[in-house]
Amino acid sequence: MNIFPTKTNWVPRLITIGLLFLVSFAQSVSAERIKDLAGIQGVRQNQLMGYGLVVGLDGSGDQTTQTPFTVQSIISMMQQMGVSIPVGTSLQLKNVAAVMVTTSLPPFSQPGQTLDVTVSSMGNAKSLKGGTLLMTPLKGADNQIYAMAQGNVLVGGVGATANGSKAQVNHLSVGRISAGATVEKAVPSPLGNGNSIQLELNSADFSTASRVVEAINARFGANTAAAVDGRVIQVKAPQANDQRVTFLGLLESLDVIPAQSAAKVILNARTGSIVMNQSVSLETCAVAHGNLSVVVSTDNAVSQPNALSEGQTASVGNSNISITKEGGQLLMLKAGASLSEVVKALNSIGATPQDLLAILQAMKASGALRADLEII
What CA–CA distance (Å, rounded) separates 376 from 361? Predict the structure, then answer.
């Protein structure tokens, strides 16, 4: 709910534009561990995928007339098991569903370890609830089998029955199997190769890269680390595996104060949500959009609403901003305009997400908004 001034009193009003501010200042930035800022090249997850069948459904499987691949899969599986099905036989498989099985193979996984898998219907099955996934090979991008999946599919959610009516609040065509896959093949890791490792920052930043290099060299000695570019840092590491693991454990725990990131404003045009990563100031500008007018200036003179506009004045923050809505109120902000205060003022007079989008784009194009504007 939003409270905004009217001619006589304060009236609650539901804001149609969601506003979320994430503001960070350089003086409040705290140190972070290197493991939170960067990863080690070659230490990564690998996506796995497989095609399989879920059986044992209670009449909620694929309609075989519309999903012929389900019938073909059943016939192929039965032939491999020594069961021959006569040509032209019409199979009505109401208890079977064709599915895709997906998971991620964590780094350093070894044969025998188990993984959770997600089972998703491919056809028109109404529900996978109560079904059992048959043995399904899971392949990587190189088309090699790295795991095998099988088990009972769990479909979560909430169901209720009242006066003969049923209500289901969940998604019945997707389920999970806890520890449903077993690793069959390990992925080779380049971590133990060579006399150095590569650190990769999560976000490319030359200042942060130089600070990481300084922290590593201060802890382990000069010339231990060197920046390759704004993202990659080359670090000399011991040859022996046990010594290298100990070294990396100490390295990841080092604290580094990251550089302040570039000013950025993200606007979701569908929901009207706005996110800013730091305080963004505006230069002098004036924007007119429909029945909205936005004026940002450095003049300290106090402006008043037109005598015939029947508007009202509200003081918000410390900026010198005036935002008027035809036949509505005038909002004033004094000295040091910031984008957060502009958006608050626009919200208070009922601007729509489209209004915000147009005004911010105009400010960016004019150079008044000195931040990256990303619209999602």
Answer: 13
Do the Cβ atoms of 61 and 94 come closer than 8 Å?
A: yes
Helix (H) or strand (E) holding 148: strand 145-152
The full set of domain ranges for the chain reads: 2-26+263-375, 47-157+169-183, 190-256
Residue 225 in contact with residue 213, Cβ under 8 Å?
A: yes
Task: Name the fold adopted by 190-256.
Answer: Alpha-Beta Plaits (3.30.70)
More confident residue, 296 or 51: 51
Average pLDDT for 26-34: 70
User: In this structure, are strands 313-315 and 330-333 parallel, antiparallel, or unpaired?
Assistant: parallel
This prediction has a pTM of: 0.70
Maximum alpha-carbon separation in the chain: 92
Q: Residue 76 is inside which H or E element, if any?
A: helix 68-80
Confidence of residue 230 (pLDDT cuts 50, 70, 90): very high
